[in-house]
Amino acid sequence: MDRDVRANIAEWILRRVVGHARASELVGDQLEAHPGQGNLRFWLSIGWLVILFSWRRFVGILAATISGVLLAWIPFAWALTRLWAIELRPAGPPPNGGPYIAASVLLWNAAVFFLIRFGFRSDLTWVSLSWAFLSTFAVCTFWIPNVNLSILIAAIALFLLFVRNPQNRRALLVLVSTIVSGGITMYVLFKIPINPRSLPSNWILAMVLLQLTLTVVAECSAASFLHKLLLAAPSPAQIESSL
C-alpha cells in the first residue's frame, strides 16, 4: 500500500478518537519510527494507538450499562422494603416507579460514563452526578406526600446553580442532550413487541441487556460528540484571553 494512502487512512481512523492535529502527529511519528517496516507492523501500531486512546470510552460504556441499572433499582428496592415498613406509604398497591426509575437509569448511565471517560475533575461529571443523586432521592421518595414539591424545588435550585457559570451551562446542555438521546432510544427499543411465551427466558434477558446496551451507546455517542463540540473546544473568552 502506498505510503500516502495508508497515512490518510490511518489519520482518518485516529481522528475518531483524537483530534485532527494529534492524529497527523501520531501517524507521522509511526511512519518515521518504522520507515522500513511492512504494512502489518504499521497497522498493528495504529490499532494499539486506537485502543490506548479509546479504552476509557469502552470501559465507560460497559460500566454505565451495568451500574446504571443497579444504581437506579437498588435504592428503589431498598425504599420499598424499608420505608414501607415504617408506614411511609399510600394506601393500595406499591406505586409505579417506572418513569422515575427510567430517568434515574439514564442519569446514572451518563454520570458513570462521564466519570470514567472525562475524570472526576470534569464539570460534566459534577453536573451529571448532582442530577443523578437527585434522581435517586426521587426514586426513593416520590410516593411520600409533599415530597414531589421538594424534588421540584431541588431541581430548580440545581438548574439555577449550574446556569450561572458558562462552562456549567454547556455541561448542562450536553447532559440534557445525552439524556434526551438515551430516552428516545430506550423508548423506541422497549416498544418493540416481545412475546415472553415464544422465547426462552435467557433470550428475553439477552434482548433486554442488548436494549440497555444500545441505549447507553446512544447516550455515550451523543455525549462524546457534544463534549468535543462544546466543552473540549476553547470558548471565545479563552481564545480572546490567549491572544
Explained architecture:
- The chain is an all-alpha fold and 243 residues long.
- The protein has one domain.
- The chain has helices at 3-14, 20-33, 39-82, 98-118, 123-141, 147-163, 166-190, 201-232, 236-242.
- Helix 5 packs antiparallel against helix 6 (147-163).
- The longest helix has 44 residues, at 39-82.
- The protein is globular and about 70 Å long.
- The two termini are 43 Å apart.
- The relative contact order is 0.09.
- The model is unreliable at 234-243 (pLDDT under 50).
Give me the strand/helix succession.
HHHHHHHHH
What is the radius of gyration computed over CA atoms, rounded to a whole number of angstroms? 23 Å
**Mean pLDDT score, rounded?**
79
CA(first)-CA(last) distance: 43 Å
Strand portion: under 5%
The geometry reads as globular
Tally of distinct domains = 1
Low-confidence stretches: 234-243
Total beta-strand segments? 0
Secondary structure category: mainly alpha
Level of helix content?
A: over 70%
List the total number of helices.
9
Summarize the main sheet. Answer: none
